[in-house]
User: What shape does this take?
Amino acid sequence: MKKITIKSVAKKVGVSTAAVSYALSGKRKISPRMSEKIMKAVDELGYKPNIIARNLASRKTWTVGLYTSPTKNINSDVFFNSLLAGILDNLHEQRYQLHLYADYLNGNTEIHPDLSMTQPIDGALIMNPRINDVYLDYLIKQVIPFVVIGTPPNPEKMFYVDVDLTAASYKATNYLISKGHGKILFINGPPDYIQSIQHLRGSEMALRENGLKLESGDMIHIPMTEELAYNALKSIGAGLKNYSAILACHDVFSFGIMSYLKENNIHVPNDIAYISLGNSRFCRLYSPAITSIDMAPYKMGYQSAEMLIDVIEKRRIQPSHTIIPVEFVERESV
Amino acid sequence: MKKITIKSVAKKVGVSTAAVSYALSGKRKISPRMSEKIMKAVDELGYKPNIIARNLASRKTWTVGLYTSPTKNINSDVFFNSLLAGILDNLHEQRYQLHLYADYLNGNTEIHPDLSMTQPIDGALIMNPRINDVYLDYLIKQVIPFVVIGTPPNPEKMFYVDVDLTAASYKATNYLISKGHGKILFINGPPDYIQSIQHLRGSEMALRENGLKLESGDMIHIPMTEELAYNALKSIGAGLKNYSAILACHDVFSFGIMSYLKENNIHVPNDIAYISLGNSRFCRLYSPAITSIDMAPYKMGYQSAEMLIDVIEKRRIQPSHTIIPVEFVERESV
DNA sequence: GTGAAAGCGCTAACAA
DNA sequence: TTGTTAGCGCTTTCAC
Assistant: This one.
């Protein structure tokens, strides 16, 4: 059984391969009569174009790469789901496809896939601002258009979309202050993360505007895991009594914090107030009174994909960015 | 600036393109002296092979496609995360890459991507047994190797990996019975899902062995969403008093159920026992006494990828499957 | 151990 | 409006 190529179709109809190609792509006017004959042959033979060959000849893959964090991390990160859903939805609308690249952990060191050996793509979406550097160099050198999800190290030079993290922590802090909380415990990410800095900035601003200030020990910087959030509270121990509210700067901390509070019978909001940046809805199983700020992961995904396709198709060079506003979620019904 | 191809390298060194190709792939013995010279030139020129051209010539893409459910569904499904992590980890070990295809919702109808127009792959992983049919036909016709994640409609003809769903509901039911629960409310998926049938079978078996039987109304079949689980309980209302335990056959139901219980101040395990198939750890924020069965999503992903690569590389024809045993999770620390 | 060259299957520039 | 054909960049057979 011979393979059915564009040639088979051309021969069967008695036209050139070009005619078939054009009939299929519509990139050139074809007489209706011929077009019809070609389509019929395509159907009868069950011809399917070879996408690789098409990619090679046209230098276009209709595929976008998503570079994400180590698999260990996406494992328990619901944020990732929504982000991915947003990306997929937009790409689908624009008739692009998605190729997924993840980093891997070898012991404690991250292994980044060798981009030059991966499937060719028309553009890339980069998820983790901190690890960017590895990919960024490559993408820039290879002149592959890309959009960073989150704020990159040198924002002025790049396309990126981010949620307004500074505003998020500003709002959250203000919210707590307005409820009468003067002493807030901040659980923040590692100090070398750009987002952590943004959170710090937002919170400090709100405090300052209210004549308060961040004392040493009020803001804890820890890696982004539940366990460490749990441990952090544990090591604060009785010192927690000094605080009337907790602000979790990242969703992943929530489960750890909640678990600690529950274990120690510390009630929200009676004993302590709690607010999280990121929609930790499951926390409401502990207390319905929990407020959070929706960090709009779906929108981030959707808009970053949109920006990327725009960059690709319009061949944009001039960096730009989108900052997505954040919103309160007072309480969410099922 | 001219593009650097294999020809550039060959010309620079003064050898044939074949020599460069072989030096890079190692598929043929090359004298060390020449190999060295070639590598040096590759380095100096910064030559990166064009993967599309390579794919075309070798008819191999080192890429696997994952066909998943509509984006709406992955949006809130943590199961998906672990599954994906497992797949990615295995593929990485085997030096394969992942291409992601999702279905889309247009109103209420699912839209499946036209596979013949998507990126070419060496094999496929299919996630949702119910929607399989659409893909299955195509994959079979195109002779693309694939592995189904979950139990397909006609298991004897396919490669698949699944967790032991029957055993899961059997064990869970038995567990409840052993705790003295004679009247159990089962929240199961739609009746036309293969998994739902397996759950039914497992539960019935356990009941029968204990001289009990499933009365009409004891097992509720609903689509896989939180909302509907919530609504289901709501419409049962006071009738819930007739049951001393709830068994959720799928993780997604948990949040809905928990929310209902909390809102109505029904306590676990004092008022009612609860067990879920799928590790709904956040439920423990409502009650630490909640037991669940780990449905091993990571393993499923990992093993399905493993099987697929095996099928691809060994060109297996004879269908086979792997059933992953399930385990209890009595309580999970943070 | 090495080179020449014929593909891989399609696109698109050029010619008619 | 249609056909011819030279690429796209690499792999691999065949000949030396």
Chain A has three domains: 6-58, 63-163+297-326, 165-294. The mean pLDDT of chain A is 89. Residues 3, 5-7, 17-18, 21-22, 25, 27-28, 49-59 of chain A lie near DNA strand C (CB under 10 Å from a C1').
